[in-house]
Amino acid sequence: MEKKKYYIDIGSGEISQIKYDNNDSFTIQATTEEVSLLRAKMENMHDAGVRSFFRAHVPIMPYHNDKSNDDYDSNLTETYQMLYDLGDDEVKKHIDSIGILTDDHM
User: Fold this and answer.
1) Where would I find the H helices in 1-106?
2) For residue 71, what are the CA distances in angstroms to 3, 45, 52, 80, 89?
3) Does residue 23 sit in helix, strand or coil?
4) CA nearest 8: which of 22, 27, 21?
5) What pTM value is reported for the model?
6) pLDDT digit string (tens) for 10-46?
7) Three-class SS of residue 58?
């Protein structure tokens, strides 16, 4: 399967083949299937974030016992792992620098 260049911005959830404004936080080379999987992980992250928002307004539910926060963190880590695997040296260097894929960041 042919790999194409994609521009990724995790904050906005954008995945695009067209570079414009600041949508190029990460640049990857990926197949259509890989992009679909990445998009699903980013959508799962968004959904978990929405659930966490509503949970935050329920004072009797402690943060550390919230599955939606765990889901968000898990999908975020998996997203960064995919970006690391599909990204160029600059992407790998940046992800290494923030330490999200190591136990040291906790």
Assistant:
1) 32-55, 67-86, 89-98
2) 29, 7, 10, 14, 28
3) coil
4) 27
5) 0.81
6) 888 899 999 988 888 899 999 999 999 999 999 888 8
7) coil
